[in-house]
Amino acid sequence: MENAARIMGIPFPKMTMDQSVQVLSKVVEKEQTGLFHVVTGNPEIVMSCQHDKQLRSIVDEAGLVTADGIGIVMVSRLRGGNLPERVTGCDLLYKLLEAGNQEKWSFYFLGADEPTSQQAAERIRRDYPNVSILGRHHGFFNEEEEVKIIEEIRAATPDFLIVALGAPYAERWIHKHKEILHAKIAMGVGGSLDIIAGKVRRAPRVWQKFHMEWLFRLINQPSRWKRQLILPRFAVRALLYRERKA
């Protein structure tokens, strides 16, 4: 891929947040038959792609892979890739809601528990009144409910299908059903609905400015410490990784 930084074999386009929104805006505007899959590529996904061939295939087939995390950006800069900034799933979702409020885009939200899903939808309706929420469903569904969810999404044909089922399950779910979902764009957003609903507190801007959001989340959610151990492992492996020449 031209104008991209490769991190452990994964190409990340050198795009800012605003440029990413512009790309997705064009996807919404034009007529197309296939679903456009956005993967927010964090260190966990990049590391998993090194041994999980199916996940690597899903990422390779995605329409857009964004740099979800300062770790991705910093490694790219140390290796000369120079990604301009991070484009996290949560921040991108907020930007899409802002743009969607102007363009009157439609959304379907899948994921989180029922109270969180409901609260997130209520806040989105309040803060972005011109956004159309064509449907929503919590993320704790069985096979029978899954069939109904897919049919509901197919009938709604939303501009954006937002999947908050956690990575990489969200990516696998989107890819598995992408031929029948009838959404224009689908994107996994991790725990973003928890943040929108107010269930999980987002790091203050000063923490984000100094790229310490990971520490804020660890302090407020100590149970995440095992997940955070992957960050130093990722940094070492990514910096020592020998990229194959195209």
From TrEMBL:
Pfam families: Glyco_tran_WecG (PF03808)
E.C. number(s) listed in UniProt: 2.4.1.187
Listed pathway(s): Cell wall biogenesis; teichoic acid biosynthesis
Origin superkingdom: Bacteria
Keyword Transferase: yes
Keywords: Cell wall biogenesis/degradation, Glycosyltransferase, Teichoic acid biosynthesis, Transferase
Record's catalysed reaction(s): UDP-N-acetyl-alpha-D-mannosamine + N-acetyl-alpha-D-glucosaminyl-di-trans,octa-cis-undecaprenyl diphosphate = N-acetyl-beta-D-mannosaminyl-(1->4)-N-acetyl-alpha-D-glucosaminyl di-trans,octa-cis-undecaprenyl diphosphate + UDP + H(+)
Name of the top EC class for this enzyme: transferase
CDD domains with a match to the protein in the record: Glyco_transf_WecG_TagA
Family: Belongs to the glycosyltransferase 26 family. TagA/TarA subfamily.
Classification via PANTHER family: PTHR34136, UDP-N-ACETYL-D-MANNOSAMINURONIC ACID TRANSFERASE
Function: Catalyzes the conversion of GlcNAc-PP-undecaprenol into ManNAc-GlcNAc-PP-undecaprenol, the first committed lipid intermediate in the de novo synthesis of teichoic acid.
Protein name: N-acetylglucosaminyldiphosphoundecaprenol N-acetyl-beta-D-mannosaminyltransferase
Organism annotation: Paenibacillus mendelii
Lineage of the organism: Bacteria, Bacillati, Bacillota, Bacilli, Bacillales
